């Protein structure tokens, strides 16, 4: 499961880099980082892109990235921004803690590291909050030329196919081995380009379900492709070691209909937790007759930290509509310090939103208030906004669905 022939490693590097030079996508962070002579500014451009690309598709990230870099072109500019501004720009991108940690780390670089980014993957991971092993490797190799590998979802898939690694790709044994492989094969003279080439190959050619093996520039180095082309080898994955932790168990035999997509295998996905939440859209007419909504701010930690939302109350499962209406009325009354009649809550409908680990249903109610209604004493922080102001606020995609 390793690359043991130096000549093969050299050929793999040459073939992959030649393909990358011909075929790489024109992406804004590559253009920006490639044109930036200052290594700290280059590292910042790469860093922002890598954080945004975690769990998010390239097509979605491009507009966010361009807006971010236009607003905060340097670490110093980001360090001076408020969390509210960061959340407003991040709204809709998901996994909101990423933006918060990015800003926290920028402030640390400016205040504690004299504005100078750490130069190695080890120091980046150790000194910057929110920077894990992969992000540190990407920044260090692309921005500072450190010959260190990277392992993300695309690289996992490529390396598992290249080396016929068929065990659960999320297991510690497989992940540790893939880091060993990545560090062994990374090109010493062009580590950043090589790592980007591996990721690009996984994103555009070595796809999860319909890989374009005929177009793959390194198929001659791919054991999975050779297995499909020539038939099964002696062992279950062509490995002669009994009980190899990188081969799949005997209970999961090779499926010839899957071809190279036999690799990698993944553990069964954990089912998301099911949750229900009552949401009340409090409405009033402002001084110019415009409809206004009341927003409250979520806690500074946890899910959707620091974002604004409509007053909400988690509900027990199987709670009848009459009971959930009463529970919401009691919650609003305690929160507002004003009587709220359950009968005054108008049921609008339900909205489903899927988080990575939660299947969330929002039961939406509305409650009109008098135009002069004020709630200055409520906690947590709250504010009245027009619909236009709502969409410009740091609100989640789920709350936009509620509207």
From TrEMBL:
Keywords: 4Fe-4S, DNA damage, DNA repair, Glycosidase, Hydrolase, Iron, Iron-sulfur, Metal-binding, Mitochondrion, Nucleus. Its main location: mitochondrion. Its EC number is 3.2.2.31. InterPro entries: DNA_glycosylase, Endonuclease-III-like_CS2, Endonuclease3_FeS-loop_motif, HhH-GPD_domain, HhH_base_excis_C, HhH_motif, MIG/MutY, MutY_C. It is an enzyme of class 3 (hydrolase). Its cofactor is [4Fe-4S] cluster. CDD domains: ENDO3c, NUDIX_DNA_Glycosylase_C-MutY. Residues 272-403 form the Nudix hydrolase domain. It is found in: Mitochondrion; Nucleus. One of its GO terms (molecular function) is 8-oxo-7,8-dihydroguanine DNA N-glycosylase activity. One of its GO terms (cellular component) is nucleus. It catalyses: Hydrolyzes free adenine bases from 7,8-dihydro-8-oxoguanine:adenine mismatched double-stranded DNA, leaving an apurinic site. The keyword Mitochondrion applies. Binds 1 [4Fe-4S] cluster. The keyword Transcription does not apply. Adenine glycosylase active on G-A mispairs. Belongs to the Nth/MutY family. This is Adenine DNA glycosylase. It comes from Centropus bengalensis.
